[in-house]
Amino acid sequence: MATARIIDFFNTRNPATPCLVVDLDVVADNFTKFRRALPLSKIFYAVKANPAPEILRLLADMGSSFDCASVAEIEMALEAGATPDRISYGNTIKKERDIAAAYAHGVTMYAVDCEAEVEKVARAAPATRVFCRILTDGEGAEWPLSRKFGCVPEMATDVLKHAVSLGLTAHGISFHVGSQMTTVDAWDLPLSHARTIFDAMAEAGVQLKMVNMGGGFPTRYLKDIPTAEAYGSAIFDALSKHFGNRMPETIIEPGRGMVGNAGVIKSEVVLISNKSANDNVRWVYLDIGKFGGLAETMDEAIRYEIKTPRDGADKTPCVLAGPTCDSADVLYEKNAYPMPVTLTIGDEIFIEGTGAYTTTYSAVAFNGFEPLKAYVI
């Protein structure tokens, strides 16, 4: 996943570690693949995955829309060249004053998942469109997103009817199957729930128009993943199965799948040690950890592919940890990570597939370690 351009950047610029380098050519290629795989769906890039201005400008120029979680992200998308009609305020947990700020920017599409959120939108952004997020089980996702966001499908009709009663437009349904979803047919069940809600609303005299099918599209880490075409085919089949010839407008919100494989982190081995004289497991400490951008190693959910200049040597399982004075800053211990026996202090290592959810999780200089430096090429 380290492209020739990234390798050349590391070799010629030799940036200080830790740092992330993102190749825009890979992002552009991913966007094209999503557009070809699901040509009837609008792409709303999930800004939270990586809000680098260069990435946002590229995607805006290519015709992408944007899924935003905050007013700050909305302003980033606008600055990158997106128009308000290409922005969705997709967070279901919003301060009323933030809804008002988004409305002042011209944003007219908002996510909700309960009547209280509907009421905030109705007061702060009158006569706009809302879509109701429903729960999914997240089965098959390496980074599930269930429970916190969404309501049970049976509640969605009440939420949307309440929106209509307050003068809002009930626009549709949304769901998210879970991040790093490796099961291509995961969209089938929530699409069946969406159709049921569409029918119930039609009986109440309200015609829904849109299904936001969320993100979940994976990037490659240690294991191969299905192609964008495989996901597109499975999703189209599920849409056809549940909606037939009455296809709704559809949205997808790729984040990790758009930028994950475009980035590589360069890090350095700070220390290698054992905890006792007869301890056969080495502890390898890097100059980056959970608080420096690798938060998704929490519960060892995301296992990144790590390359070293000594990969030809034999490997033994190691505990990998970050540099901070916090005992939680351990990346892999339950499932130790194989590292070369010849690895030594000062060696540079490369953590691949790190274009998504790294710089955004490294926003605070915890322990005085600076946020992750990023270069976009």
Automatic annotation (TrEMBL):
Write out the entry's keywords from A to Z. Lyase, Pyridoxal phosphate
Q: Which molecular function term from Gene Ontology is one that the record holds? A: ornithine decarboxylase activity
Q: What is its EC number?
A: 4.1.1.17
Which organism is this entry from? Ahrensia marina
Q: Which residues carry this modification: N6-(pyridoxal phosphate)lysine?
A: K48
The UniProt similarity line reads: Belongs to the Orn/Lys/Arg decarboxylase class-II family.
According to UniProt, this protein's pathway is: Amine and polyamine biosynthesis; putrescine biosynthesis via L-ornithine pathway; putrescine from L-ornithine: step 1/1
What EC class is this?
lyase
Biological processes annotated in GO: putrescine biosynthetic process from arginine, via ornithine
- Residues at the catalytic site: C325 (proton donor)
Please provide one cellular component term from the Gene Ontology annotations of this protein: cytoplasm
Q: Which residues form the Orn/DAP/Arg decarboxylase 2 N-terminal domain?
A: 27-259
Where exactly are the transmembrane stretches of this chain? none
Record field: catalytic activity? L-ornithine + H(+) = putrescine + CO2
Q: Which cofactor does it need?
A: pyridoxal 5'-phosphate
In terms of SUPFAM superfamilies, this protein maps to: Alanine racemase C-terminal domain-like (SSF50621), PLP-binding barrel (SSF51419)
Protein name, please? Answer: ornithine decarboxylase
